[in-house]
TrEMBL record:
Key words, A-Z: Endoplasmic reticulum, Membrane, Repeat, TPR repeat
InterPro entries (UniProt xref): EMC2-like, TPR-like_helical_dom_sf, TPR_EMC2, TPR_rpt
Location relative to the cell: Endoplasmic reticulum membrane
Entry's family note: Belongs to the EMC2 family.
CC annotations in GO: EMC complex
Organism: Aureobasidium pullulans (Black yeast)
TPR repeats, residue ranges: 159-192
Region (Disordered): 257-281
UniProt-recorded name of the protein: ER membrane protein complex subunit 2
């Protein structure tokens, strides 16, 4: 059970969360803390960082499945071990209060509690992140954006905060700012293939909204490069190949519309940027590559192939529909 509990909560399915929460009472009894105060408790018990990480993840799993009683036990154990003034414990207590809040009024009281904690210590990063999440959940996106920018003033190399700020800007239609935030994430974590793919998605969306052909071509070319980097870092990343296929198809259309321009104008146009637009042949090869890989992922994953599990079923269905549309267009 400990191996499953060490996985990040966001990577645990609802079914697995339910199973873990059902086993929680037995696991908690086996991890009963010493009656002695810390640090004397270390003399009679063997503990590790993994044990407390598992306890925290179990708390989240129980909240997801509505087992508030067991979640509270996990919270109290963490509080007894690290103290109620520990920043992470304060954030987890806030998470518990959010999950058990009866209505928006109760959530506003939780928000007020966050503000009081931040008045005492403005650089309390875990609590500040909970405040941002709660503001977003309440629909106060502008306030969440402001709070997150204040967090980044205190911690400018927090990749998670930059990624969240990108999503907040995207919700408000500020695509250029969202792209900038993801570029900041990549400065901190250059090998994060999911962020490269997300950057490609935002660039692709921005290209759809672009009015002039030059800007559209540049954005599509940048999006294709981002997706290529994503699959370079993770060979079987479905979202990377899906984005690469869509972008390549759209890029072929854009290149065909600008094919009548002189070659010199295409390579030196300021709107295209320092790099020239890709050739039709290279884009066509990337489209074929992505189509072939997506077909393989769908075939092997839906066929139960060994080592091809773990893909989201909704994403697999979306890929299958995309491939079917291609097949229908060829038949016509």
């Amino acid at each position: 059970m400990i191996d499953q509990l060490l996985a990040p909560p966001t990577q645990i399915s609802h079914t697995e969360s339910l199973r873990l929460s059902q086993l929680a009472p037995k696991w908690l009894r086996s991890q009963a803390p010493s009656s002695l105060p810390y640090p004397l408790s270390l003399l009679t018990t063997s503990e590790s960082a993994e044990q407390w990480q598992a306890n925290e993840n179990l708390l989240v799993a129980c909240l997801r499945t509505g087992d508030d009683e067991t979640a509270y036990i996990c919270l109290e154990q963490l509080s007894q071990r690290f103290g109620p003034d520990n920043e992470r414990v304060q954030a987890l207590r806030g998470l518990y209060e959010e999950a058990t809040a009866a209505d928006d009024k109760a959530l506003l009281n939780v928000l007020k509690g966050y503000d009081e904690l931040l008045e005492e210590k403005p650089a309390n990063i875990p609590v500040l992140k909970r405040k941002v999440a709660l503001l977003r959940g309440l629909g106060k996106v502008a306030d969440a954006t402001k709070a997150l920018t204040e967090l980044l003033d205190s911690s400018p190399i927090d990749a998670e905060a930059w990624a969240e700020l990108a999503e907040l800007y995207f919700l408000q239609g500020a695509h250029a700012q969202a792209v900038f935030c993801l570029e900041e994430v990549l400065l901190i974590t250059p090998n994060a293939w999911n962020i490269h793919a997300r950057l490609g998605e935002l660039l692709f969306i921005s290209a759809n909204a672009a009015e002039d052909a030059g800007s559209k071509l540049k954005l599509l070319a940048d999006a294709q490069r981002s997706f290529c980097r994503s699959i370079e870092l993770c060979d079987d990343y479905l979202r990377g190949y899906y984005g690469l296929k869509l972008t390549s198809q759209r890029l072929l259309e854009a290149l065909s519309q600008t094919s009548n321009k002189p070659q010199k104008a295409q390579s030196s146009d300021a709107t295209v940027g320092d790099l020239p637009p890709p050739s039709v042949a290279s884009v066509e090869k990337l489209r074929e590559l992505s189509t072939k890989k997506l077909s393989e992922i769908v075939r092997r994953s839906m066929g139960g192939g060994k080592g091809w599990d773990g893909y989201d079923q909704a994403e697999l269905i979306a890929v299958k529909e995309l491939l079917n549309r291609d097949t229908q267009s060829v038949q016509r």
